[in-house]
Amino acid sequence: MGDTRLTTTNVLSNHFLVAKQCEAFVYVKIKLVNTNGGFVMSKKIGIVYASMSGRNQRVAEYLQAQLAKMGQPATLDEISQFDSQKLLEDDAFIVVSYTYHDGQVPDEALDFFDDLQTLDLTGKVYALAGSSSIEHEHFGRALDYLDQQLAHLGALRATAVLKINLDADRADLARLDAFCRQLIDFMAFQQQQLV
Ligand SMILES: Cc1cc2nc3c(=O)[nH]c(=O)nc-3n(C[C@H](O)[C@H](O)[C@H](O)COP(=O)(O)O)c2cc1C
């Protein structure tokens, strides 16, 4: 059997190697990582958040920091100041939002929510996270409404909707780390499908 190991420590993207082994072509998928152990990507991710008392802003900032550690920069915008058209420039986007009133999308996020319908989001990758409160009947339902809307518009969710009760604790931070990794993996998978 041939030796298929790579010795290069910092390779730039995912590839498929085609090796002829045992008189058959064998596809060897190699996950290529940089020296920090993070994926090297040149994709664009946008994070848009709604936050009244600061929890969801902190979640959004944490996501931005974790993605950066994984080698993936992301922009950060407050939802009421955000031009939804910018979503079209991103390869993927994350919406971070609380839930308000009786299980509703926050008022300052309504324009964003409505504007989604005017965009062609077919095949666009998204992920949803947010802090709300289990004391309320419809825990984190704003995220469910966003999910329904985005799925209806043909966008592709990269990972499970992540709901946090009030302040993020250590377990929540671990879930947010996994959330970032799954988003990056999903984007890499999508890219491979296009090759
Ligand atoms: C008036 C009011 C209504 C709320 N309604 C809901 C609700 O229906 N469902 C829910 O899960 N959380 C509800 N919450 C909880 C907030 O979503 C939660 O406090 C969240 O962490 C706030 O995020 P922020 O600090 O980013 O503003 C409500 C909070 C307030 C003050």
Q: Could you report the average pLDDT, rounded to the nearest whole number?
A: 84
- Quote the distance from N terminus to C terminus: 28 Å
Radius of gyration computed on alpha carbons: 19 Å
Q: DSSP strand (E) fraction?
A: 15-25%
**Main pleated sheet:** 6 strands, parallel
Report the CATH topology name.
Answer: Rossmann fold
Q: Name the CATH superfamily assignment.
A: Flavodoxin domain
Q: Which ions and ligands are bound to the chains?
A: flavin mononucleotide
Give the tally of β-strands.
Answer: 8
Q: How many domains would you count in the coordinates?
A: 1
How many helical stretches? 4
Named at the architecture level, the CATH assignment is 3-Layer(aba) Sandwich
Helix content: 25-40%
Shape annotation: globular
CATH class descriptor: Alpha Beta
Q: H/E order of the elements?
A: EEEHEEHEHEEH
Structural class: alpha/beta
Residue stretches low in confidence (pLDDT < 50, at least 5 long) are 1-41
Architecture overview:
It is a single chain. By secondary structure, this protein is an alpha/beta fold. It has one domain (about 45-195): Rossmann fold (3-Layer(aba) Sandwich), CATH 3.40.50.360. Helix content is about 30%, strand content about 25%. It contains 4 helices and 8 strands, in the order βββαββαβαββα. It has helices at about 55-70, 110-115, 140-150, 170-195; strands spanning about 15-20, 25-30, 45-50, 75-80, 90-95, 125-130, 155, 160-165. The strands form 2 sheets. Strands 3, 4, 5, 6, 7 and 8 form a 6-stranded parallel beta sheet that branches. A two-stranded antiparallel ribbon has the order 1-2. The longest helix is centred in the C-terminal third of the chain and has 25 residues, at about 170-195. The radius of gyration is 19 Å and the shape is globular. The two termini are about 30 Å apart. Residues about 1-40 have low confidence and may be disordered. This is Flavodoxin-like domain-containing protein. Its cofactor is FMN. Pfam families: Flavodoxin_1 (PF00258). InterPro entries: Flavodoxin, Flavodoxin/NO_synth, Flavoprotein-like_sf. Keywords: Electron transport, Flavoprotein, FMN, Transport.
